[in-house]
Design a protein that fits this description.
Helix content: over 70%
Structural class: mainly alpha
Oligomer: single chain
Shape: elongated
Distance between the termini: 51 Å
Number of strands: 0
C-alpha cells in the first residue's frame, strides 16, 4: 500500500530518509515545472526546486495537516521563486539583464496533447507553446496563479493558501492573466 504524502511528510519530520526520497521522487518533476514556469530559467528552476525540497526536509515538523501536503509544498516552492524574481528586479538584475532569461529549447512540454489527428496535435502544441511564451510577460503572481491552476489543477482556495492571499485576489490574478493572454493572442 502506497503511503500518502501527508504520512510521508510526518515521517520526514522524524528524519526518515526513505520517506523523504519518496516525496522527492513523487514531486520532483512537478516542482521543476512549476519553478520553470515562474522563473523562465532552467538552471534557476533546478536550483530552487532543490532548495524547496531542502526546506521541506528542514520544516517537515511544521506541517500540521490543515492543508494538503501539495498545497503546503507548493507554497514553499512558489515563495522561493517569487523571492528570486524580486531579487532579479533589483538594480543588479536590470544591469546584467537577468530578467526574462529563457531558452525555449529547454522548455518542458506545457500541456499533454490530446490523442487524435496529428495535424491537430501539432496545432494544439504550437498554440500552447505560444500561450506559455506570452505568459512570461505576466506578473510573477499572475503567472504563479495560472501555473498552479492549469498545470497543477489546484482550486482557487488552494492557490490562495500557496500564494498567501485571499481567494478574491487569486481570482483577480487569474482574470488579469487570462485577459492579458487573450489580448496578446488576438493581436497575432
Amino acid at each position: 500500500m502506497e503511503l500518502s504524502d501527508e504520512v510521508l511528510c510526518r515521517r520526514v519530520a522524524e528524519r526518515d530518509e526513505g520517506a523523504f526520497e519518496q516525496l522527492v521522487e513523487r514531486h520532483q518533476r512537478r516542482a521543476y515545472r512549476v519553478a520553470w514556469s515562474i522563473l523562465g530559467d532552467a538552471e534557476e528552476a533546478k536550483d530552487l526546486s532543490q532548495e524547496a525540497f531542502l526546506r521541506l526536509y528542514e520544516r517537515a515538523a511544521s506541517f500540521d495537516g490543515r492543508a494538503k501536503f501539495s498545497t503546503w509544498f507548493h507554497r514553499i516552492l512558489v515563495n522561493l521563486c517569487l523571492d528570486r524574481r524580486r531579487q532579479r528586479r533589483g538594480w543588479l538584475g536590470r544591469l546584467f539583464g537577468s530578467e526574462g532569461k529563457d531558452d525555449p529549447g529547454e522548455r518542458l512540454e506545457q500541456q499533454p496533447s490530446p490523442v487524435g489527428d496529428p495535424a491537430e496535435e501539432v496545432g494544439t502544441k504550437q498554440m500552447m507553446s505560444r500561450v506559455w511564451e506570452e505568459a512570461r510577460h505576466l506578473s510573477p503572481q499572475q503567472r504563479a496563479a495560472l501555473v498552479l491552476q492549469v498545470e497543477e489543477d489546484l482550486s482557487t482556495a488552494d492557490i490562495a493558501r500557496v500564494l498567501n492571499c485571499s481567494e478574491a485576489t487569486v481570482r483577480v490574478h487569474l482574470h488579469r492573466a487570462v485577459s492579458a493572454l487573450r489580448k496578446t493572442m488576438a493581436r497575432e
